[in-house]
Inverse folding.
């Protein structure tokens, strides 16, 4: 395999330089301390669109609850969603559970070690499959994520806009040449991502300490700050909701969201329109929440204590078994403060 841009020698050289740099520069992260394909799979799902520091806090407790694909399947999807609470993008948790089920049903509970088979699992794309196969299993499999894209773009002075025609194909060509030249694919690939995360950063590249500076085409051309150019951000979709909060003692009325759609299968305050017409809701506040693609605005109404909604249940909001999104937690905190303030006023009158 060779690249269309003629950078094969440069990429092979980079594999050696990064492999020498990484062992003494790697961060101490929990999924690196013990290497197994299952731990690698879980870490890759958790790291999608969640900060490394946040995943580092949650990783070992999550693995304690689900030490194997079989343990996750036996615990059930609701238990996985509950343990995922606070990390957002709950579709990842559902897909991780589905992947565990496929591993149990189709592979005897053993995580596959080759990228092609890994890619057949639910929620596992080409990057995730390559990361697990190379980093956890030592396979010579290419990987391309945002960090890899940026490092290779600067190394080869590719000034095209992310998402431009042909750019992704070039990155995968380069990744194949790069990993094929590595003596230890697991070190070269993980080091490549680490370099992008710590040194070849988007807004503050640290070229003075970069092991690739000597042959970086963007640095030589004085264009490190221009490559890659920013990707146009799509306009976020506005999502408006109205929910109601009602208490019964210390328990809050919560309903399970539908099996598909926004916040699927998590616990959430019921929609305001689901309350009976005899129960009048009082406007409390608007809660806003931003995701990658959505601007969510929730109007929160307070309904009388003891109000009931079909399909909703009284739950203690601090129950660790509840699958709560960060937005639901914001609404609950607001409702709790309002409830406590109301109780104090009633006690003093």
């Amino acid at each position: 395999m060779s690249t269309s841009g003629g950078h094969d020698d440069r990429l092979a050289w980079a594999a050696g330089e990064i492999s020498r740099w990484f062992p003494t520069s790697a961060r101490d992260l929990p999924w690196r301390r013990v290497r197994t394909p299952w731990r690698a799979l879980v870490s890759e799902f958790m790291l999608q669109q969640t900060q490394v520091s946040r995943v580092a806090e949650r990783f070992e407790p999550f693995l304690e609850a689900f030490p194997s694909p079989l343990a996750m399947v036996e615990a059930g999807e609701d238990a996985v969603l509950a343990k995922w609470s606070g990390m957002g993008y709950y579709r990842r948790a559902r897909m991780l559970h589905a992947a565990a089920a496929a591993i149990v049903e189709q592979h005897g509970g053993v995580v596959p070690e080759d990228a092609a088979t890994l890619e057949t699992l639910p929620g596992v794309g080409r990057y995730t499959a390559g990361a697990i196969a190379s980093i956890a299993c030592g396979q010579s499999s290419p990987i391309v994520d945002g960090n890899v894209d940026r490092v290779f773009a600067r190394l080869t002075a590719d000034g095209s806009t992310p998402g431009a025609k042909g750019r992704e194909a070039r990155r995968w060509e380069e990744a194949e040449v790069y990993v094929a030249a590595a003596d230890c694919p697991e070190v070269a690939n993980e080091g490549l991502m680490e370099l992008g995360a710590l040194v070849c950063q988007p807004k503050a590249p640290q070229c003075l300490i970069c092991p690739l500076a000597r042959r970086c085409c963007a640095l030589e051309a004085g264009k490190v700050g221009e490559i890659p150019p920013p990707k146009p951000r799509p306009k976020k979709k506005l999502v408006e909701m109205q929910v109601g909060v009602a208490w019964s003692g210390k328990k809050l009325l919560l309903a399970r969201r539908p099996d598909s759609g926004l916040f699927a299968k998590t616990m959430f305050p019921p929609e305001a329109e689901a309350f009976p017409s005899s129960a009048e809701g009082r406007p409390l506040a608007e809660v806003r929440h931003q995701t990658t693609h959505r601007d969510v605005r929730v109007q929160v109404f307070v309904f009388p204590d003891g109000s009931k909604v079909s399909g909703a249940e009284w739950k203690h909001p601090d129950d660790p078994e509840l699958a709560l999104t960060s937005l639901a937690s914001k609404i609950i905190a607001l409702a709790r403060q309002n409830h406590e303030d109301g109780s104090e006023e009633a006690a003093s009158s």
